[in-house]
């Protein structure tokens, strides 16, 4: 209650961004990526706000999937590539999770698990992953074909899907992504008619030919457009507003330093605001002097090293600045992507690093529906 360092999470912005996905990929099913606790926005919150707008959810860790399963007993939930293990497979099937199978040793282990300990009533939905160039997960063409045949032969698969993940779909040169897409689409067509999934956010926005049966948007749901192509009324909206307040103001004389090691020094007399947000809240310590924050609608530059609980800003050029004034660290008026660029990172990392002590405030929540049945 007394903690001014807050993230506001905006349901309407999240739903707006979801609707943009639907508009861009009208024929495709939408698997909303909510891994890493919904890119730091809270996976349960995100999933419950948009479950009527999407067709499923993707996470990277089994425990995340289980937590969501409690909330969403009937939703399609996909667990991404993991350390293969028969017990994990059985637990996934018990939790009715879809599974990404991303390498060949896992295929053999899975086929044995299916033969030995899975009955015919268990729904088995597998997303076979082809390596199209990231060289991180995914099978070679030969392995993929073998995996496909081996798994189909078990007679226990409810649904087999074909997936890949692009390595640079946000780049303006589309030739690499086109070649990567062709690799999966050609192989898949050779094997029959199977649902295919390739597109992350950037491909949802700028590679419509890759949409196919399932798209897998992540960052665009949270308001960052990795292509920068959506503008005007189509422009995505920030879901997270990270903010805090000024807790002190200091006059700093010419030549004085501010913060640890005096990284920043006043070239002339300046007014410095101390803000209750630091790297222990998830504001990046790597932020250089000059990284913007917004106070009373105006941008001010970070001045001095970010510390654990505090950061300092040069507010000399603001009128009427006061203790208690709100400070936007990122949000609709200052994008996380812009702050990230100053810090040589991406919005994804900033979002996922918000820590648990930051106060969560939910805005534009729907009024709970009256039970009429
Ligand atoms: C995270 C992830 C996505 C979503 O990527 P964005 O760039 O956030 O849209 C899609 N597919 C896979 C396999 C992922 O791991």
Report what the structure shows.
Mean pLDDT is 96; it is low at 369-373. β11 and β12 (264-265) form a beta hairpin. α3 packs across α4 (62-71) and α6 packs parallel to α7 (141-153). It is built from 11 helices and 18 strands. Helices cover 29% and strands 22% of the residues. It has helices at 11-24, 35-39, 43-50, 62-71, 86-94, 104-117, 141-153, 175-191, 201-206, 336-342, 347-352, and strands spanning 6-10, 29-33, 56-59, 77-79, 97-101, 125-129, 159-163, 196-197, 214-215, 240-252, 257-258, 264-265, 270-275, 292-295, 298-301, 311-314, 326-330, 359-363. By secondary structure, the chain is an alpha/beta fold. The structure holds pyridoxal-5'-phosphate (PLP). The site of pyridoxal-5'-phosphate has 10 residues, from loops. Residues 33, 35, 80, 165, 200-201, 216-219 line the site of pyridoxal-5'-phosphate.
């Amino acid at each position: 209650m007394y903690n001014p360092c807050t993230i506001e999470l905006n349901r309407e912005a999240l739903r707006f961004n979801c609707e943009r996905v639907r508009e861009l990929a009208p024929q495709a099913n939408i698997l909303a990526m909510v891994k890493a606790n919904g890119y730091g926005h809270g996976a349960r919150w995100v999933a419950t706000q948009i479950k009527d707008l999407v067709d499923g959810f993707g996470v990277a860790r089994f425990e995340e999937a289980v937590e969501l399963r409690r909330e969403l007993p009937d939703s399609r939930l996909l667990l991404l590539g993991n350390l293969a293990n028969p017990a994990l497979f059985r637990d996934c099937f018990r939790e009715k999770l879809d599974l990404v199978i991303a390498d060949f040793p896992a295929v053999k282990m899975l086929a044995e698990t299916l033969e030995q300990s899975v009955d015919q009533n268990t729904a088995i939905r597998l997303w076979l992953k082809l390596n199209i160039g990231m060289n991180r997960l995914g099978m070679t063409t030969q392995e993929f074909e073998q995996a496909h045949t081996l798994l189909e032969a078990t007679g226990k698969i409810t649904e087999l899907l074909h997936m890949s993940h692009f390595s640079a779909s946000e780049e303006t040169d589309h030739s690499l992504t086109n070649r990567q897409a062709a690799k999966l689409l050609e192989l898949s067509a050779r094997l029959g008619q199977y649902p295919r999934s390739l597109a992350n956010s950037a491909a949802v926005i700028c590679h419509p030919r890759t949409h196919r049966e399932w798209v897998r948007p992540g960052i665009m749901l949270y308001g960052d457009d990795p292509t920068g192509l959506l503008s005007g009324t189509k422009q995505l909206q920030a879901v997270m507003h990270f903010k805090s307040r000024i807790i002190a103001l200091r006059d700093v004389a010419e030549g004085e330093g501010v913060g640890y090691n005096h990284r920043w020094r006043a070239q002339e007399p300046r007014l410095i605001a101390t803000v209750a947000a630091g790297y222990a809240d998830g504001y990046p310590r790597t932020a250089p002097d000059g990284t913007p924050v917004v106070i009373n609608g105006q941008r001010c530059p970070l001045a001095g090293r970010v510390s654990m609980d505090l950061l300092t800003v040069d507010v000399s050029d603001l009128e009427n600045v006061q203790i208690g004034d709100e400070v936007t660290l990122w949000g609709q008026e200052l994008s996380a992507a812009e702050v990230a660029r100053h810090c040589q990172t991406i919005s994804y990392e900033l979002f996922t690093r918000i820590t648990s002590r930051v106060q969560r405030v939910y805005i534009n929540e729907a009024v709970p529906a009256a039970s009429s049945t």
